[in-house]
Amino acid sequence: MKYFVAVYQKLRNIYTSQSSMENDLPMICPSLRVYENEELELLKPQSLLNDDQKKSLSIIKKQNVAYELNSVPISSNFWDLNPNNSLFDIYRDILDKSNLKNIEENLDKIVESKSIILYDAKNNDTKEFKAYKKYLTNHETAVDKITAHLEIFDSLDTDEEKKNWNDQLLNLNNIKELAFSEWKVKGFKDLIEKELEKINKTSEADLYVAMAQNAKNTFTAAEKTDVISNSSIHDINFIPYDFMENESGWNSMRIEKSELDNLHSEAKNANENLPSEILTIDYDESVILAVELEYSFVHLKRNWFNKNFMMSTLFQWNEAKKISDGQTISNDFKLPAFPKTMMLIKNLKIILDPSITNDTVNNPNQLIYFGPLIMKQQLFVNKNNNQKFLKAVTNVRTIKSDQLNTLSRKTDNPENAKISTMEFTSKPVLETVTEVPKMNPNTAFNNRINMSALGGVRNLRPITPTPNIVTPVQPVAPVKPITPIVATPIRVPGIFVPIRVPIQVQPTSAMVQFRVFDKINNDPIYKCAISIKGTNNNRIFEIETNEIGMINQMIPIGEYSIELRVDDYAVLQQNFSVVNVNPLNLDYKLQREEVKFKSYFLIGMICERMPKVPIN
User: Fold this and answer.
1) DSSP code at position 465
2) What is the pTM of this model?
3) What angle do the packed helices 103-111 and 204-229 form, to 10 degrees?
4) Which of 28, 203, 509, 524 is the most exposed place for a label (fewest CB within 10 A)?
5) What pLDDT, in 10s, does the model give residues 101-143?
């Protein structure tokens, strides 16, 4: 865990030295948070999405991701998903319970200034103002119909019903757009609203009313339309906006072992915005020589959120729970801070000691961790410098699978693995043992970070790294499991964590050779990610093909699902069976398709501390 903290500390140092503001609060994210390119793309404003089908089908997915990235911190020590503390709900409550309820009354008094655009000589609405109200009502009716239509989505069962529902949604959305166009043209929308804006600027009080009303109207409109047009309450404008399409905003970095140790010591001694539960974890990571990655600081902008009206001397808040004291980050305040900038990394490589072998890594009876990240059980070798390294598990279905969650719960206490690399052995003792010592429930580690102690919520999601020039090491014989003896347990490096499951002495696995080819020209496909999950057991395997499109893997007898994915090819999902220990050859052919698999680890969040609110 300490080198994961060291990577965070390095990014924190870079951010604070370049663009940090006085109220910026860098916070570590101690759980596994991974976002796919497709998920983050859905948060863009509608104007940046050119696929109508994607706009409609993104409705449910978009809400989930938006709620995560709008989680308000309740501790100065870390940031994580907190569904009970969403910026949406907090901001709505502030708008509803502040003195904004008097806006309409104040506006009525302002309108009495006898505007000739709004009222005629007899003090009646002008034809322009009447048209404005008429087409405004039509637009709101269209929005209400879409809202009602959205509410029936969860009750749909069949694909045909969902298809019809989607077609109706597209039609309703077109009606809404037409109503908006009529409101703008026939309802004199710009003229009337310009006049209202002019009236509201007559005094300091009127300015506050205008600003507060704009905040409320913007939020209310966004909340009504939210997922309909993908452009309102769940919208996030990313800066840089194109970080998903190219390398804009991304930087490469390699951190050597000595610097990793220094960074961890710096984080431990400074103790700034880091949970003590994480800093006390100091298991052996001597097998790690360096860490390579790409990083980016991606800023989050929300059109519906405006804190400025709360800074006015006219703003009033009479609720028992204060909004912010300008200092404390805790659940005692309603909005002490809000998430502002993501610390993202991709293409993570963990450089290993040369003595590490494929048998050490490719062991089905262990999981490999880098902080909360789970690594692939495959040893890679860089062809240019012969360095051995690990990659992270990247498949969303694997990370969210019941199989991986079951294995994670059965991993041994990493604190028991505090030993040097020289003491590690992959040779099994021919003696059956049921399990190794149970895990200490107070240890904050793995993707099972002790969030009860930290006060947060865990949620596992995937990433997909971009390819590197590497050659997977092929196992040439059945992988020998680590079989500990109760009296003298085998000692392993800290990143390799045994799974507490019965170990079978008799051979029950077969060597399976996977070969992947292009469907059209039969060319072998390099670096195809293969995800294997047991359908009648809890086994999982995450591997990649070599230059000739092949990879060998020992697979226990059982039933399995397999998913193959690589850039520029459609995802292929099938099933296969291992019925005995005889070698098995499996060939797969992939169809060309314009698709890119990009994902990003969120290892920290820069939050902005709110000033004292109200200021009086």
Assistant:
1) P
2) 0.69
3) 120
4) 203
5) 565 555 555 555 567 888 888 888 899 989 999 999 999 999 8
